UniProtKB/TrEMBL annotation:
Keywords: 4Fe-4S, Iron, Iron-sulfur, Metal-binding, Repeat. PANTHER family: ELECTRON TRANSPORT PROTEIN HYDN-RELATED, OXIDOREDUCTASE. CDD domains: HycB_like (cd10554). GO terms for molecular function: 4 iron, 4 sulfur cluster binding; metal ion binding. This is 4Fe-4S dicluster domain-containing protein. Residues 51-81, 82-111, 115-148 form the 4Fe-4S ferredoxin-type domain. Pfam families: Fer4_11 (PF13247), Fer4_4 (PF12800).
Length: 150
């Protein structure tokens, strides 16, 4: 089964975090711009990692046999349309998937307008016309979509 994911070219990434902002805006929608600063929750589904010499976003690789799915004690993670999907309502916030992910691509986030903390990872901007917002927004074209068999 082929899987599709976003990958970064660390040689092109400048660490500006435009991809993170594009991700948050894409998932929050236009209503985000009507919120007070104190009400905005910034939980991107990717994380730019930096050190002294290199920077690049870390994102879900949409594994064909995901360890995160195996680690979830409540079955909140499944493969849907060749993508690893987290059912945010079923997620109990135990962090087992965070520990299991070999790419460090899952973190925890507050649900918008709720107190519940759930697993948070790239969903390839599911339902967004034009594909992942991060790829489109990157000023150096450091991000690209990969289709891989396996």
């Amino acid at each position: 089964m082929a899987n599709c994911y976003v990958i970064a070219n660390a040689k092109k990434c400048i660490g500006c975090r435009t991809c993170e902002v594009a991700c948050v805006v894409s998932h929050a929608g236009e209503s985000m711009f009507q919120l007070k600063d104190s009400d905005i929750k910034f939980f991107p589904k990717l994380t730019v990692m930096k050190n002294k010499t290199v920077s690049a976003p870390v994102q879900c690789r949409q594994c064909g046999n995901p360890l995160c799915m195996k680690a979830c004690p409540v079955g909140a993670i499944e493969i849907v349309d060749r993508k690893v999907h987290i059912d945010r309502e079923a997620c109990i916030g135990c962090k087992s998937c965070v520990v299991a992910c070999p790419f460090g691509a899952i973190d925890m986030a507050l649900e918008i307008n709720e107190e519940k903390v759930v697993a948070n990872k790239c969903d390839l901007c599911e339902g967004r016309e034009g594909g992942p917002a991060c790829v489109k927004a990157c000023p150096t074209q450091a991000l690209r979509i990969v289709n891989k068999d396996g």
